[in-house]
Amino acid sequence: MKKKWYWRLAALMVLLLLLPACKANQSSKSDAGSGKVTTLSAAIKSSKGKTVTFYGFGGDEKANLWVDQVVTPAMKKKYDITVKRVPMDIDDILNKLTTEKEAGNNKGDIDVVWINGENFYTAKQANLLYGPIANKVPSFNQLMAVNGHSSKYDFGVKINGYEVPYGNAQLVFGGDKTKFPEGFPTSSAKLLAYAKANPGKITYTAPPEFTGSAFVRNIICDVVGYDKVNQAPATKAGLYKAIKPGLDYLNALKPYLWQQGKTYPKTTAELDQMFAAGQINMTYSYSPMHVAEKRHDKEFNDNTESFLFDKGTIANQNYLAMAKSSNAKDAALVLINEMTSESAQLKKAEAKYGYSIPPFDAQKLSPKAKQQLTDIYNNQGVPSLAELQQKQIPEVQAKKIPIIESLWKEYVLND
Amino acid sequence: MKRTSTLLLACFLVALPLVVLLLWTVATQWLYPALVPQQFGGKVLGQMLQEPNFWPAVLNSFVIALATTVVTLLIAMPAAKVLATQHFMSQRLLTFMIYLPFILPAIAIVTSTQMLFIQWHLTGTFTGIILSHTYFTLPYAMQIILESYRKMGQGYALTAKSLGAKPWQILRTITWPLMAPGIATAAGLTFIVSLSQYLPTFFIGGGKIMTLPLILLPYANNGRFGLASAYSVVFLLVTMIGVLLLKQLIGGWHHGLRN
Amino acid sequence: MTKKSLLFLGPFILLNSAVILAALFKTIQVSLGYYPVIGLRHYTLAYFKTVLGDAAFQRTIGYSLYLALVATILALLLGLGMAFILLKTSANHPLLANFFKIPIALPHIIVALMMLQVLSQSGLISRLLYQVGLLQQIDQFPLLIHDKGGIGIICVFLYKEIPYVAVSTLAILKQLQLGYVQVAANLGATPRQIFGRVILPMLQPILATLFIILFCFTFTSFEVPLILGSPANETIAVTAYNLLTQADLTVRPTAFALNFIMSLICLAMTLLVLGISARLPGGRRHREKD
């Protein structure tokens, strides 16, 4: 008798759990999300007075400031739409979207998402995004290379109009030129020679930290050639065979790294700090203007300059996409158009907002805008726009990235 | 005295990282090997105050933590009262039940309960966030309150009852004064734990309701030491205000009765 | 079981079991390979088999246990020590005593960042040693962050948990001070008897509880080792976190399997500690024997 209440409660709990589960199964059949978008002008009309959310990485205060000071006021003034910026890491966004989909929720909180690469691949695979939208965004048609590689492929994944290019990124190295009397190491071979002559003065952030992961891919591409990585099958065995010389190189470099490669820093912020303290002689960033920014902030001294590998460094773009469960797709379309507009993007390229490179096709820009962009790159210590574009390696396919990371872990880190 | 110097040493060790935290909020240049920043300025504080979500986040954090504390106490106190004197299940099973939230990884809990909360239409609401926080704060509160009940024992209350005291009188004049220190500690800890919750606020709140950890964490993860430090200082201030307030409220009642 | 007790217990049991059952259900379901979002609909033990058979995973478990046990035991010992000191000094130095409690209120990730700034080779202590001339070069400073032994990680946990243990045990010590010890001494008890019959029975249940709380927390914590750990020595929680945050959804079942194994380890540790505690003076089993 004593324990009966206990079981009754348990039964009640199970019932409570099952009830909503049944309900969810029914509702998941209905179309996820509400509304469809036809054209921008229709969207502008129907979205007046609405609120739209922008979910994306929130750890960059300058990019945040741009949304708050440039995009949000413009959206309010031009279209009477309220923008809510939510700082959330992309993996959390995907987790949230996935769970909402599992629960059959069709009134999601997330409207516009800042995304690229593996995450886009996952989102597309799990059918979390709404589209195609790119052809409905005038900024895309008017300002960008509609048929360019980066408009069609994101980390080798077919975009099919589910994303609109939002910004450029390219791996750029930074070094103190007084510590490289023979010039910067512009190839993996020169880097190894430098490391041997200066043991302990080079390191990189351990993958899966995403810039460190890009560094490893960049080295591999430099050693074995991009085409080999690109053509290799996306399996562990196939990739291992293709990139083995790259892994061998990294192992040859390992004893000359900081702490003999037994341990690595975890974030690029730490890498920068070690560089600034003179502990290591080289740093890197996905932002081509990184050195200029840090010099401006007096974290790096004025001898610090950027350099690239002669065979190029990994470049990719980041994009804006719309969640399938978005409840305000019209307002989301207006927001995506505004965030990729010439006026907003040229502001984003200013020092105050983090020197971001617009995803525009130079030929489609007005002469004034073109000049403004070129001027930014005359900033001290960074490569010119022409050099950046000339020395580019496309990103390897999204599916291969976690495999390369695990191969690095297995054959370099734990070897 | 030896003990005092040990306490001083402990406080020094506590202070060391805190000093770094404070200096980072006002530093504009602080390179190795300088012991204190080479340049001071209000840049970081300015950036923090420019954030449109700053004040709403402060307010939301405070309100949610306070509400969570109230809900947690309302759930934990009666439950602890029964459990402290119960005989129908083994003490081990009981302890085990209370600590289950510690044992299951938070990330698994949060992602799976999110489904439940969506189905109950609690996502994106204060109620949802407060309930999810309560789940995580309950073990802390239960542990302390249960301990207080056990240490108090039933003797006083039973004596009072046999002398004809009404349940309300017993609570007011015996249970509460004896329990107040324990309850104040539990309340303070609940407030602290709720305030620092990140995962449940994010997943259940969906980013609709901003709190301090939600803004702070991306900066911390990205190694923005200055901004992360500035938010941490604000975070500490909010915590202190909350804990002092709770202590005053709970301890105050206790005090008033004593006089 | 009276109706009143049920009413009193109801909200607690309802909330806890709803959340726990939901989480358990989902964790088991996904770790067994049922994950319809990406088209997995067949139950299998394959994920558990892969995880358990992986040599790297076995190393990871050992390392995680090492970190959690060292941090927990040190925090308990030092925390209890600090509680004794607070007991004697907090009346005279209330300000210092309160200051000592501040770390309880700081989130772990902040403490981790602060430790990075204090303990790293370019951190505050290294700068101090450099300024006073004990250090000529930055690399002479020992590696305390991203190191093999996880010193930085342990420091973060100690910084946070010592005050927590001290505050939690202080209340009990105060009760001891209220007279139990004196009474026992007046009744002619030897110091050994006082410890065995008075102090231990009152202290050990709370220490066991704290052990469980701290162990489970440090064992499953991913934020701190993620920032301060060595990539070559991963903890199981970091592995699970890295899998969960990977864009590739097909590794989710493995991540959930890891989560489930972590839960089981915490569970086993909890039962073990509760079992020991019950058999010690002050425990339920112990009393039954008397």
TrEMBL record, chain A:
The record's section on Gene3D superfamilies has: Periplasmic binding protein-like II (3.40.190.10)
The yes or no answer to whether the keyword Signal is present is: yes
Pfam families linked to this entry: SBP_bac_8
Any signal peptide, and if so, which residues? 1-23
The answer to whether UniProt assigns keyword Signal to this entry is: yes
PANTHER family reported for this sequence = PROTEIN YNJB
Indicate what this protein is called per its UniProt record: ABC transporter substrate-binding protein
Organism of origin is: Agrilactobacillus composti DSM 18527 = JCM 14202
TrEMBL record, chain C:
Q: Does the keyword Transmembrane helix apply?
A: yes
Q: Which CDD domains match?
A: TM_PBP2
State the compartments where it is located. Answer: Cell membrane; Membrane
InterPro entries assigned to the protein according to its UniProt record, in alphabetical order: MetI-like, MetI-like_sf, Sugar_ABC_transporter
The portions of this protein that span the membrane are 64-87, 99-119, 202-222, 256-280
Q: Is the Protein biosynthesis keyword given for this protein?
A: no
Q: Name one GO biological process term.
A: transmembrane transport
Q: Which UniProt keywords apply?
A: Membrane, Transmembrane, Transmembrane helix, Transport
Q: Name one Pfam family in it.
A: BPD_transp_1
The record describes its membrane topology as:
Multi-pass membrane protein
Give an example GO cellular component term for this record: plasma membrane
Q: Which residues form the ABC transmembrane type-1 domain?
A: 61-273
Query: Which PANTHER family does this chain map to?
Result: GLUCOSE IMPORT SYSTEM PERMEASE PROTEIN GLCT (PTHR43759:SF1), TREHALOSE TRANSPORT SYSTEM PERMEASE PROTEIN SUGA (PTHR43759)
Family according to the record: Belongs to the binding-protein-dependent transport system permease family.
Q: What is this protein called?
A: ABC transporter, permease protein
